[in-house]
Amino acid sequence: MFGGSWTFIMIFAAILFSxxxxxxxxxxxxxxxxxxxxxxxxxxxxSMLTAAQAPVILMxxxxxxxxxxxxxxxxxxxxxxxxxxxxxxxxxxDRKALPTLSDSGTxxxxxxxxxxxxxxxxxxxxxxxxxxxxxxxxxxxxxRFWNYQEKNRMKSSQNSSKAQYIVVx
Length: 169
Description:
Elements lengths: L5 H21 L13 H34 L13 E5 L4 E8 L2 E4 L1 E4 L5 E13 L2 E17 L2 E11 L5
């Protein structure tokens, strides 16, 4: 994503600095600025950039939440958690692993916990986006899984619970 990268920030800062430098010092000395102080044209461009980036940021947060939901709910269909080109696993220790799911430039991870037989006993996301009063906010979320039963030669959890930790200020 170019819009939130350091490259974008540096180029953007250079353009702003150049705009002010060009208008305030170089062209002002000649008396023919194209956007004199208080830089109304620059303000218009910045407003348009903000208006264009705001929905992109919201869509990205919404997509991030949807991918995390998919990853967390995939515990009920274990074959969907098999490693592939979009899903990579990293071991944390003997009982924990971090699956990382990537899709269309969005990447999410959850920490999964396992029991001694390899069944998923829980998942944890330190940051999960939820829509609260029209705005997306991030909160930690945890899930627990138990009561595994085999159906059609596949073992999956029959019971689970999810908890989101919302801090009220």
